[in-house]
Amino acid sequence: MLDIRDGKTLRVFGSPNLRVLGKSVVNVEYRGEGDDEGFVKRVKEEFTDFGSTSVVILDNFDGASMKVAELLVNNGFKEAYAIRGGVRGDNGWLDIQETLLPPSVHINPKMKVKKSLEVNNNGAIEQQSDVKSQPPSVAESKQTNNGYAKTSTEPNKCARSTLRSSSPYPMYPDMKPPSSPTPSKPQ
Q: Region Disordered: what ranges (predicted)?
């Protein structure tokens, strides 16, 4: 299988795992019609015997995969097939994978945010986000000296974290509910 999607899409969706079928996926980005010769050259470098190779082409949608299939057949490949719908199109890989494909070849989107939970000694849960959308702090920044990069191992003191108690009475340190006044005795 030849996956012609760009690197950003591959990081989010990934390629199907075809090891159960005894096949592998080759990733070569197709940059458009202006790069046809360079693309064919990069693809031929990945396949040893391209004259007797049948290739299945996977794209986001089926627009570029049809052009690439024709391009590869015209440049010496035995056969080239485009996957109708690509990965995300109508009747594409994501649409049909639940009903027609075995679970080992499913494509699952990768999560963008990873959260780690740490339990504090009083039962509170500390939630820390690993998102790196902000510039690195001074403790995380790399310092260069004589051409070598040194990364500080100091913990980030300004990390976003929140404390949330698992107790239904978080305002009371002894973890007991407030006591109500003693009811008066009837006379």
A: 125-187
* Residue 106 to residue 168: CA distance in whole angstroms: 42
Residue 187 CA to residue 96 CA, distance in Å, equals 77
- Contact between 2 and 55 (Cβ < 8 Å): yes
pLDDT of residue 89: 78
Q: Convert the pLDDT of each residue in 146-166 to its tens digit.
A: 444 555 444 444 444 456 666
Domains of the chain plus CATH, in order, are 2-105 (3.40.250.10), 115-165 (no CATH)
Coil, strand or helix at 98: helix
Q: Nearest 5 degrees, angle CA 87-CA 91-CA 93?
A: 30
Residue 136: count other Cβ atoms within 10 Å of its Cβ. Answer: 12
CA distance 81 to 89: 16
R_g of the chain, CA atoms, integer Å: 28
**For residues 106 and 113, what is the distance between their CA atoms, to the nearest angstrom?**
21
Query: What are the E-state strand segments in the chain?
Result: 2-3, 26-27, 54-58, 79-82, 115-119, 124-129, 142-145, 148-151, 161-165
